[in-house]
Amino acid sequence: MLHSRALLLALTLAVLPLPAPSASAAAPQSAQRPWLDPSLPPGRRADLALAAMTRAEKLSLVFGYMGSVMPSAHYTPPPQALPGSAGFVPGIARLGLPPQWLTDGGLGVATQRSSLYAYRERTALPSGLATAATWNPGLAEKGGAMIGAEAHASGFNVLLGPGLDLVREVRGGRSFEYAAEDPLLAGMIAGAEIRGIQSQHVIAVAKHYALNDQETGRNVLSANISAAAARESDLLAFELALEQGGPGAVMCSYNRVNGVHACESGWLLDRVLKGDWGFPGYVMSDWGAVHGTVSSALAGLDQESAYVFDRKPYFGAALSAALASGRVPAARLDDMVRRILRSMFAAGVVDHPATGAAAIDFPADAAVAQSDEEEGIVLLKNAGGILPLPRAMGELLVIGGHADRGVLSGGGSSTVFPAGGNAVPGLPPSGWPGPEVYLPSAPLGAIMGEAPRVNIRYLEGADIAAAVRAAARADRVILFATQWSAESRDVPATLDGDQDELIAAVTAANPHTVVVLETNGPVLMPWLGKAAAVLEAWYPGSGGGAALARVLFGDVDPSGHLPLTFPASLEQLPHPVLPGTGVPEGQPFDADYKAGAAVGYKWFDESGMKRLRRRADLHTLSLQWPADAGQ
Ligand code: BGC
C-alpha cells in the first residue's frame, strides 16, 4: 500500500458525512423490514432493502473508509472502525444493516501497522503457493474456513482475499499471496478457499482483478495483452474461482490493462466479469486504485474503498453530483447498492453478525495451517535417497534461516502478526511493508523432537567459515535458506544476502546437505548440483516448523507439486529484464505480455526450454475436485 499511503493530504476535499445512527436501530425485526427474513433469497432481500433506502443511505454503502489512523495524514477513521483494520463502510442501523468491517487478507487476519494500537495476533496459513502445491481443494477450503472464522471472531465480515493473480513473473513481490502460474490450479484452489471463508459468514474478495502481476510500477504500468490471451490465462483463473467459490466481491487492481485503469475498464468489469460471467456480486477498488467518478461508475465499479488513498473521494460528493446531473444514472447507483446488499445477505453477514466476541482456538488453527504446509512442501531433489533423515546418526548440524526461532512470512498488507509475537523482532525494514516477521514455529525445536537421541547443533550461518568447519564434522546438515519478499516491491530471483555462497561452501564441505528453501517464489540455485536434497517450503505458516520436521524425518511424504516453474536462468523468461526497470517512479510504462496465454510451464514448453518443473498432469489433478464442482 506504499503508493499513495503518503499521498493523503488532499483529504480536506468534500466527503459525504456519515449517516447519523438512527433511534430506531434497536427496533425489532418486523413486517416493516421484510429483508431481514432469512428465508427469502438474497437477491429478493436486496431488492426489498434497496426500495426502503434514501439516496444518502445508498451513497453511504458505496463509499469506504480506511480503518486505521494514517501517519502523516489529516484523517481519522470513523469511531466504529476496528483499530488497525484495512477498511470500514458504515451500516444503516435504521434498516438493520450492519457496517462492513474489512480486513486483509488471504493468508489470515492481518493488522495495519501503527504504533497507536496493539497488533491482532492471529494464525497464518502458509503461502498461497504452498496451498496450491497441495493440489488439494479440500485443504484449501479448510484453510479458508479457519481464517474466515478468525476474521469473524475478530469482528470482521469482509476478508480481502484470496489473491489469485497468476504468477507470470518469478520476481513478482507478492507471489507468496497468490496461487499458481496455471489458471486451472489457481482458480480451483482460490475457489475452494473462497467457499471456506464464506462458510463463516464473511464475504471473500477475489483480488486483484486483473493482470496485477508485478509490483514494480503497479500503479502506472499498462499490462498489454490480447483479449483472447487474457481470457485464456489470468482472467480464466478468476472465472474458475468465481464459478467454484462464488465470492461476494472482486477487487479491481491498481494497474492499467491495455491502457485503461482496471477500475475503470468497462471491458474487464462490465463486459467480462458481470456480463459474460454473470457475476452477481460487487466490485470494490484496491486502496488508491480509483481515478475518476463517472468513468469508474459507468465501467462497473460498485464501491470505492478507503477513499483516502485516492486522489479525491470519487464516490463521495462527486458521485452525488454526477447523479444529480444525470452523468451517472440513478439506476447505476441502485445496481451498485443491490450488488453489495445481495452479497451481504448471501454470505450471512446480516443474519450472523460478527461481534468479535468469539474465542479463537490457536492450537487447532495452527494444526490446520500445519496440515496445509505438510502437503504443500515440494521435494525438488533427493539424490541417493538422503531424505527422510535417519533418527540415529552422530551429529546433525542445522544452519541458518533463524530456524532456532521460527519460520519466515511475507510483508505488506497481508502480514499476519502471530500469537506469541514476531520470533525475530527488529529486522528491517522498520516501516511498511516491513517488518520482516518470523512466526514462532521453530523448525529446530521440532527437529529435536523428531530425533531426541541425535546430537543436534545450530549455527546461524553468518560466519561462513565456521559453518564450513562444523559441516565437515557433521553426519548430516540441514541448511535453511530464505528470501524475504513484500508487497510494493519485486525481488530478484535469488536468496537474500550471501546465502548462495554459504550453501556452495557448506555443500562442498559436506555432501549430505539438505537445503530447505523458505522463499517467495522460484529462486536460481547455482549450487543445485552439490546439494543432496532440496525442499521448497514456501513461507511455511503458523505450523511450519512442525510440518518441516515431519517431512524431513519421513512422518509425512513430501507430496507437493510445483505450482510454478523454476527457471534455470533469467534469460529463459519472457522478460529477462523486469518490465519497468530503470523507469522513474510514477512514470507510466508498458508491460507487453509477449507470452500471451503461455504462462509459466506453457512458455517453457512452447519455447522448448529446459526447466526444473515436472510436467503437470492436469487431467489427473481434476479427479481430485469435489463431485459437485462447477454446479
Ligand atoms: C493491497 C490489497 C489490500 C489493500 C488493503 C492494497 O495496497 O494491494 O491487496 O487488500 O491494500 O490493505
Strand content: 5-15%
Shape: globular
Radius of gyration: 24 Å
* Sheet with most strands: strand arrangement: 1-2-4-5-7-10
In this entry the ligands are:
beta-D-glucopyranose
Mean pLDDT: 92
Name a few traits of the molecule.
single chain; 631 residues; alpha/beta; 6-stranded mixed beta sheet; 19 helices; 29% helix; globular; disordered N terminus; disordered C terminus; binds beta-D-glucopyranose
Kindly describe this structure.
This protein is of the alpha/beta class and 631 residues long. Helices cover 29% and strands 12% of the residues. The protein has 19 helices and 20 strands. The protein has helices spanning 2-5, 42-51, 55-61, 128-134, 137-153, 183-198, 227-231, 234-245, 266-276, 294-299, 317-324, 330-347, 362-376, 443-450, 464-473, 499-509, 544-552, 601-607, 618-622, and strands at 87-89, 100-103, 121-122, 158-159, 203-209, 222-224, 249-252, 256-257, 260-261, 282-285, 378-382, 395-399, 407-408, 417-418, 438-439, 455-459, 476-482, 513-518, 533-536, 590-592. The strands form five sheets. Strands 1-2-4-5-7-10 form a six-stranded mixed beta sheet. Strands 11-19-18-17-12-16 form a six-stranded mixed beta sheet, covered by helices on one side. A four-stranded mixed beta sheet has the order 9-8-6-20, with no helix packed on it. Helix 16 links the parallel strand 17 (476-482) and strand 18 (513-518). Helix 4 packs across helix 13, helix 5 (137-153) runs parallel beside helix 6 (183-198) and helix 6 (183-198) runs parallel beside helix 8 (234-245). The two termini are 37 Å apart. The relative contact order is 0.14. The model is unreliable at 1-28 and 613-631 (pLDDT under 50). Beta-D-glucopyranose is lined by residues 1, 86, 104-105, 160, 207, 286-287, 413.
